[in-house]
Amino acid sequence: MAASRILTWWRERDKPGWRNFGIAISTLTLALFLALYSAAMAESGHSVFAGLSAVLALALAAWVGIAIVPKMARRTGLRWLLYQVDYRLTREGVIYLAAVFVIALAAVNTGNNLLFMILSCLLAGILISGVLSRIVLTGLDMNIDLPEHVFAEQPILATVSVANEKAMMPSLSLRVVSTGDDAQNGILKRPVYFPYIPHEKWASQKVELLFPQRGIYRQSAFGIRTKFPFGFLEKTRRVDSPMELVVYPRVEPTDEFYEILPLLSGEIESLHRGRGNDLYSIRDYTTSDSVRFVDWKASAKSGGLKVREFAREDERRLVLALDNCLGAAAAAALRHSEQQGELSSPEHLRFERAVSLAACIAWHFYEARAVMQFRTPEMATSMTSAGDIIYRVLRTLAYIKPNTGGSGAAFLESLAAESDSFKIVITSQPQGSIPTSLWSSSYFIFVDSL
Fold first, then answer.
1. What HEC string does the chain produce?
2. In this model, does residue 8 exceed pLDDT 70?
3. Closest CA to 407 of 322, 320, 321, 326
4. 136 partner at 20 to 30 Å CA-CA among 12, 113, 267, 389?
5. What percent of the chain has pLDDT over 90?
6. How many of the other CB atoms lie within 10 Å of CB of 267?
7. Which pLDDT band holds residue 136 (cuts at 50, 70, 90)?
């Protein structure tokens, strides 16, 4: 059993590295014996032999330094020398150092050997703590896996993984934390604890994350923190791991969405009724039907009014437009609030509600398998299945910001030029500035009313 373990261990080792190590040790041992022989020859008066032995010993040592050491250095992971480790003294550490200071004063004043021995043990504890914590923090790598699509105000489960790449030593009592400014605005909001990570193994922990607002969340680095072994110092090693997470607006229906959904359905139905060319059926006339669809021949035969009903074409074909150009008054108010550092001004909150409402509408028609186009003054998708563009739409809504320097008039004019599809327009423009031709084929949601 022992022999098989040794063979298994040897197969997993770096054989060229161990061979170079053996050659270096053997050569330096020979150089040491030559140096000792040179000293003995010098004392006995054989200066020639002493000089030759000294030169040969120096040559062997130089050969090891030139030929062997670089090969071993290339195979040795020296990244731990570059690790940035921050130290913070804990409350326990303060008490411990105070005790060390008191005992040091007592030992110096009394000259008591027992106090000096106790002091040396206390100082050795500090040294051991630093060495062990440094070992625990070396040879570590980490990763965080997030879902592909993340929505605001919707909890998600992320997986934080830490790899211990050390060949023999485990790592104990680690916490993965956000550092610096990322502690407040980053992706990881709370520490993730790893009690034990074996050597050459991965350890993973699930953590629930919640992002309250849409937008881009960035994490420039993580910290791997430990108080091991005694808790006197809290050591944090910085791990650069630049991450960027796009958080979509929430798509759960809001009160505003529930209020406008029946109106949207009615507007779309009234616009598309009778637009087809193929006769679908002839039915009784109702008060909501247009007189132009009355079938007079059928009405004369039956003695009552009958209307023709045509097959609908592109009933679910629509354009969702978000005009992010604010009106002059709203733009001025928003610029003033930004200068004052206010991020929750009424204009900003209304714009966020408009973005959330646009996301809810887009998601609704995605679930209804509609044919949709999404437009803003800066971009436009193709008219295609909502399932093909929904995440592009949500990503655009995650990035979009209010435009305080543009004008939405040109954008609305471009929408008015297209009369072949129904439009849902979310805009900050006043009602009086809406092109007349746009009213007949559009449903307007005014940001000021949200």
1. CHHHHHHHHHHHCCHHHHHHHHHHHHHHHHHHHHHHHHHHHHHCCCHHHHHHHHHHHHHHHHHHHHHHHHHHHHCCCCHHHHCCEEEEECHHHHHHHHHHHHHHHHHHHHCCHHHHHHHHHHHHHHHHHHHHHHHHHCCEEEEEECCCCEECCCCEEEEEEEEECCCCCCEEEEEEEECCCHHHHCCCCCCEEEEEECCCEEEEEEEEECCCCCEEEEEEEEEEEECCCCCCEEEEEEEEEEEEEEEECCCCCCHHHHHHHHHHHHHHHHHHCCCCCCEEEEEECCCCCCHHHECHHHHHHHCCCEEEEECCCCCCEEEEEECCECCHHHHHHHHHHHHCCCCCCHHHHHHHHHHHHHHHHHHHHHHCCCEEEEECCCCECCCEEHHHHHHHHHHHHHHCCCECCCCCHHHHHHHHCCCCCEEEEEECCCHHHCCHHHHCCEEEEEHHHC
2. no
3. 326
4. 12
5. 11
6. 18
7. confident
Give the pLDDT score at 14: 61
Q: How far is CA 93 from CA 87, 89, 106, 232, in A?
A: 11, 6, 20, 4
Residue whose structure tokens are 């005790």: 99
Antiparallel, parallel or unpaired: β 371-375 and 317-322: parallel
What's the mean per-residue pLDDT of the chain? 79
Q: Tens of pLDDT along 54-109?
A: 888 888 888 887 877 777 666 555 554 556 778 888 888 889 989 989 998 888 88
- In the chain, the amino acid numbered 292 is R
**Percentage of the chain modeled with pLDDT above 70:** 78
- pLDDT, tens digit (0-9, with 9 covering 90-100), for 17-31: 777 778 888 888 888
Does the CA dihedral 356-443-331-333 come out positive or negative? Answer: negative
List, in order, residues 6 or more apart from 264 with CB less than 8 Å away: 361, 424, 443
Residue-wise pLDDT tens digits, 153-198: 899 999 999 999 887 888 899 999 887 666 666 788 888 999 999 9
Please give the structure tokens belonging to residue 283.
Answer: 């039915």
pLDDT at 275 over 50: no
